Amino acid sequence: MLRNLRIRNFALIEEVELHFNEGYTVITGETGSGKSILLNALGLILGDRADFSVIGNHADKAIVEAEFDLSKFDCSSFFSEHELDNEALTLIRREVTKQGKSRAFINDTPVQLNVLRELTSQLLNIHSQYNTIELKERDFQLNILDLLSDLTAEKKEYLSTYTSLRQKERELENLRLSIEKIRAESDYNTFQLHELNDLQPDTTDFERFENELNRAANVSHLQEVLGLIVNTVSGEEQVADRMRMVQNRLEKLGVSDAEINQLSVRIRASLIELEDISSDAEGILQTTEINPEVLEQMSQTIDKYNSVLRKHRLTNRSELIEFRNQLEQVVLGGEELEKEIEHLSRVVRELNDTANLQANALHTKRVNSSAQISRQLQEILKDLKLPDTRLEFQLNTNSALRDTGCTAIEMRFSANAGMDPVPIEKAASGGELSRVMLALQQMISEHSALPTVLFDEIDTGVSGEVAQKIGMLLKKMGSQFQLMAISHLPQVAAKADFHFIVEKSSDGKRTETRVRSLNDAERIDEIARLMSGEQITDSARENAKALMN
Question: Cα–Cα distance between 58 and 134 in angstroms, integer?
Fold first, then answer.
């Protein structure tokens, strides 16, 4: 519940601090006194976008602080999730500066606005005369029916199944798109894979082939040079024979000169080397004859190899083998994808069956409880001076599942005897919608622990005995949870446990809005003013006392 509210430098409010209690609190004030300022300040606590024009003239920033008693609400998971201090008395603060900055705090820890909203939406609800438009929305009607039917657990279980179903359906759709792409490229990928495998890149020595081809391209020149070596050494020119003759003549001289003997030794060594060169050249010459068919096959292989490298922007055999392996995975991956699609299709069918069973069970429970809820609502509306009201929930099933199940709902309403109910948005007036909303709020309060609820002129469009009934209903609801109401009606104000008044004053230089709590005597005067205007008579005071009693 809301314990304290502090507002500083906000619009016409210089500074105000309000203390709230359990029960029913009413807030009154003349038109234009600044009640909307109070609502806008609470809107900041709820996470509304900051309007920097609300900053007053007394400082560079506006501050709104609200202290909530969370002893009856288990918010531990929220505080744990966001790593915030979990205090029984939790302080929430918004600051808005003239420099265009807005900051939010929970227990003095800065938080993002969405985090603030997540918490305060559970602590404070504001319903205005304009919020009755929610009654015309199908999702709101269904949520109300589920809450009053105590279907929160079943609805949560179904939503979990439905969420999983939609997630798996998206995954399945993505897999199917992938397999379609693979199938569209399958022929081309298979062709490319065959092309690469034909080259046998794991075993083919492309570098040796290129060397062989380069050698074959120069074979005629090579043979000519090798033949020249053989002929020069041991052929017609007989270089070896001549050198041998010179070496023999040196030996026959029998000269003991060391230098001459060394020449003979060197000639003998040169002869041995020349004969080795001639022999090696002759051996190479005999092996330079290349089979033309083998040469052609090598040439074709190297052409294909180089073509594939250019085609796939590769530079060597290692990159070619890696690319081939990746392509194999793509081709083989299609088969694995087929198996995964088959498995996921079974999962989707099972989830769909479960979701349909849960949705149908939800629908059945909604149908079974709707008649009793309608009767209870009609009884409350009779007390609110709508004795001939017929309010019913028309429920049908949709063929397609939604996050709320398979139920299609239409709240139908008739306020007059002899008139068949029609969709509530076509039949109910503003005053009737307000009373329906009040009746729903009363029933909701009996089914769950409501946060603080503030009604902003929810009694618009009613008067007299109807206003008296609304006041009594608000007092009853205030005994079940903390309830506040902004009202212009004396009958509504008179039933409150606590009373605040919003006043605007001006000294000719400055206008200021103040909010203060009223004692019993002041309450009588304020209710009398609501009844008779500014001229408060003794009879008006007596009527005010009668209303309060």
Answer: 39
Residue 44: strand, helix, or coil: helix
Strands 2-10 and 61-69: antiparallel
Q: What does pTM read for this prediction?
A: 0.63
Q: Each residue's pLDDT tens digit in the chain (549 positions)?
A: 999 999 999 888 889 999 999 999 999 988 777 788 888 899 999 998 888 888 888 788 899 999 999 988 888 889 999 999 989 899 999 999 888 889 999 999 999 999 999 999 888 888 776 556 677 888 889 988 998 999 989 999 999 999 999 999 999 998 888 777 776 666 677 777 777 778 777 777 777 777 777 766 666 677 667 777 777 777 666 777 788 888 788 777 776 777 777 888 888 888 888 888 888 777 776 766 666 676 677 777 787 888 888 887 888 888 878 877 777 766 666 667 788 889 999 999 999 999 999 999 999 999 999 999 999 999 989 888 888 889 899 999 998 999 999 999 999 998 888 888 888 888 767 778 888 888 888 888 777 667 888 988 777 777 788 888 889 999 988 988 899 999 989 999 999 999 999 988 887 778 888 999 999 999 999 999 988 877 888 888 888 898 888
Residue 506 CA to its chain's centroid (Å): 50
Break the chain into its structural domains and give their ranges: 1-123+451-518, 179-336
The residues that bridge with 109 in the sheet, in sequence order, are 106
* DSSP H or E segment with residue 77: helix 76-81
Rounded to whole angstroms, the Cα distance separating 503 from 28 reads: 9
Give residue for tokens 């050698």. 215
SS3 462: coil
* Integer Cα distance of 421 and 282 in angstroms: 117
Do the Cβ atoms of 143 and 448 come closer than 8 Å? no
Instruction: From 7, 4, 23, select the one nearest 499 (Cα to Cα).
Output: 23
> Which of 397, 426, 424 has the alpha carbon at shortest distance from 411?
424
Contact 37, 13 (CB under 8 A): yes
- Cβ–Cβ under 8 Å, residues 398 and 409: no
**Which contiguous run of DSSP H or E holds residue 124?**
strand 124-128
234 closest CA partner among 270, 273, 274, 266: 274
Q: What are phi and psi of 70, to 5 degrees?
A: -100, 15
Class of domain 1-123+451-518: alpha beta
| Spatial separation of the C-alpha atoms in residues 391 and 381, rounded to whole Å | 10
Name the token pair of 301: 């292989």
Q: Return d(Cα 16, Cα 421) in angstroms, integer.
A: 48
Q: How far apart are CA 545 and CA 31, in angstroms?
A: 23
